[in-house]
Amino acid sequence: MIKIKNLSKTFSSGFIKKEYVKAVDNATFEIEDGKIVSLIGESGSGKTTIGKLILKLVKPTEGEILYKDRNIYDYNPIEYYRNVQGVFQDPFASFNPIYKIDNIFDMLFNSLYNEIPKSERLGRIEKSLKDVGLNPKHIIGKYPHQLSGGQLQRLLIARALILESKFLVADEIISMLDASTRVDVLNILGDLKYKNKMSILFITHDLSLGYYISDWMLIMYRGTIVEMGDTKEIFSNPLHPYTQMLFDSVPTLDKKWDDSETSTETGEEPPKTGCKFAHRCPFATDKCKTYNMESYTVNKNHQVSCIKFANKNN
Ligand SMILES: Nc1ncnc2c1ncn2[C@@H]1O[C@H](COP(=O)(O)OP(=O)(O)OP(=O)(O)O)[C@@H](O)[C@H]1O
Fold first, then answer.
1. Which domains does the chain have, with CATH numbers?
2. SUPFAM superfamilies given for it (predicted)?
3. For 18-31, what is each residue's pLDDT tens digit?
4. Cα–Cα distance list, 314 to 37, 114, 240, 297 (Å)
5. pTM of the model
6. I need a surface site. Which of 18, 36, 51, 113 has the fewest CB within 10 A?
7. What is the SS3 string spanning 250-281?
8. Which residues of 36-60 are buried (b: 16+ CB within 10 A; e: fewer)?
9. What is the pLDDT of residues 120-177, one digit of tens each?
C-alpha cells in the first residue's frame, strides 16, 4: 500500500550560520495492505518526520513515497486525504476549540466529501462514533474541551472512519492516555485492521506497545532504519546492538533502579562517517568507521543494518 524508497529529509535552520539536521536518512520500507507496522526509536530519531512525510506535511529532500504504486504528489489533495489520515499525540491540539464536534465533522465533509448530502452525514458520523466505542448522544453537540483526552483520541480515529480512509499514521497517539484507556485505543486500532482492512503506521518509543499491536517493526536510530522485520522475529531475535540496547532498557515490574544503572546516551555527536551508532556500541570495531549503514537480509522476515551481518546471507 505504502512504499518508501530511499527517503531522506534534511531540515535547515538559522539565517547567518545555517545548521542542517538529517532527520530521515535513506529510509526504504513497505507497509502492506491491512498490516500494522510500528516505527520505534528514541526521541529525535526521525519517527514523526516519517509520519509527516507520508501525510505530505513536509516534502522529501530525496527519495519518494508511493501510495498504491503512485507517487503521493501525483494525487490531488482531496483524493489523497480521503485515503490517508493522521492522528497525533495531543488530541486537544488537534481540534479547533471554537467549534462543536458536529460542526467539525460537517467541515470535514465539506472539504473532503462535499458530494455526500447533509441528510446522510449524521448517519455516517454516528456509525463511526459507535465503531470507536463512543456513544453519539454523549458526543454530538459538545465542544472539544467538554471531552476527555481518550474520547478526543477516539474521535480522531472516527474521523478516518468517516472518510473510509485506507491508511492511518498514528503518531504516539496513546502516550497522553491512562493505562486502561491506552489498551482500549490500541484495541480499536486492531479492530480497524481486521474489520476495515486499514493499514496503520504506529509510531511509538515504547517497544511493548509495538509488540502488542503490530505485525512488522521498524527500529530507527538517528534517521536510519537500523533493523526491520516481523514483530515476533525481532522480539525473539533482536540483532542490531541498538535494538538490543532498547530491549535491555525496558523497565520491568520486578526491577528497581539502583546506582549501577547508567544512561547509554552519551550526548556525544555521532561520528561523521561510518556507523552512526558506533560511539555507543559495545561491539564497535575499526570496520564500523567506514561502514555506510547498508541493510543486510537475515531472512525474508528480517533485515539489519550492522556490519556484523555483512556477507552472512548476501
Ligand atoms: N521543522 C524542523 N526544523 C528543524 N529540525 C527539525 C524539524 N522537525 C524535526 N527536526 C529535527 O529532526 C530530528 C527528528 O525529529 P522527529 O520529530 O522526527 O523525531 P522523533 O523521533 O519523532 O522524536 P520524538 O519521539 O521526540 O517526537 C530532530 O533532531 C528534530 O530536532
1. 2-214 (3.40.50.300)
2. P-loop containing nucleoside triphosphate hydrolases
3. 888 999 999 999 99
4. 25, 52, 17, 7
5. 0.91
6. 18
7. CCCCCCCCCCCCCCCCCCCCCCCCCCCCHHHC
8. bbbbbbbeebbbbbbbbbbbbebeb
9. 999 999 999 998 889 999 999 999 999 988 889 889 899 888 988 999 999 998 877 7
Distances in Å between the Cα of 73 and the Cα atoms of 57, 81, 113 are: 11, 12, 20
In this structure, the residues whose C-beta lies within 6 A of any atom of ligand 1 are 11, 13, 21, 23, 41, 43-49, 205
d(CA 286, CA 236) in angstroms, rounded, equals: 29
The ipTM assigned to this model is: 0.97
Pocket-testing residue among 8, 9, 10, 11, ligand 1, by greatest number of atoms within 8 A of Cβ: 11
Query: What value, to the nearest 5°, has the Cα angle with vertex 72 and ends 66 and 76?
Result: 150
What cell does 223 get? 534517521
Pocket test for ligand 1, best of 47, 175, 224 (most atoms within 8 A of CB): 47
Centroid of ligand 1 to alpha carbon of 194 (angstroms): 32
Dump strand ranges (E) for the chain.
2-13, 19-31, 36-40, 62-67, 70-71, 84-87, 167-171, 199-204, 216-221, 224-230, 296-299, 302-304
